[in-house]
């Protein structure tokens, strides 16, 4: 199992010969070994429901010193046969934080960690509702990886959207500046204030009805200037 590849597995989840009486029985967890008093990390984060010595009838009879924590899905993770516990009931732990130390308390033939996952937290901390801990963690970690990938994609899309918003705002600002320039040009083209020399030459009413189109004033002024120069030259000759 990938999630336990750094551990020595001495007894997997499922049916086995009981190490004490030799009878065929179902092993409700997985037995993992590092070394005696090895600091046991939480395989997943959660809230500590129980921390101490398990007693018969309470869901942890024969399990020795136990830490049980509930993950966000409501599953209970049991760390059993601990030499000692390192947390207290009610604590919130993150993945990797130390829950206790490998030991051989309770019904045990040697120092190891009995790790068990239960699908509910009551009664008796979900005793009897065990699931395969390896498969559960693998599925959980796969979902976490998918969530992380999705978060990265969302962040990337948000960055792209922010960049597009910036580009759109720049284009809008540019367009507004162009509109101002165009309006200024239109105002200039439609300005009918007549220069003094033109009034003297052609009269005050000469522009009435001529400069109604945007192109009209510009073209008219050019023609008027040419006509004025021609008439001035004629008068001088």
Outline the structure in words.
With 237 residues, the protein is α+β, with helices and mostly antiparallel strands. It has two domains: 2-142, Distorted Sandwich (Glucose Permease (Domain IIA)); 190-237, no CATH class. Helices cover 36% and strands 24% of the residues. The protein is built from three helices and 13 strands; from the N terminus they run E-E-E-E-E-E-E-E-E-E-E-E-E-H-H-H. Strands 1, 4, 6, 7, 8, 10, 12 and 13 form an eight-stranded antiparallel β-sheet that branches. The chain has a three-stranded antiparallel β-sheet with strand order 5-11-9, with no helix packed on it. A hairpin with a 5-residue loop joins strand 7 (65-70) and strand 8. The longest helix is centred in the C-terminal third of the chain and has 57 residues, at 133-189.
How would the blueprint of this fold be written?
Blueprint: E1 8-11, E2 14-17, E3 24-27, E4 30-33, E5 39-41, E6 46-53, E7 65-70, E8 76-82, E9 84-85, E10 92-93, E11 98-101, E12 113-118, E13 130-131, H1 133-189, H2 196-202, H3 215-236
Antiparallel strand pairs: 1-4, 2-3, 4-12, 5-11, 6-7, 6-10, 7-8, 8-12, 9-11, 12-13
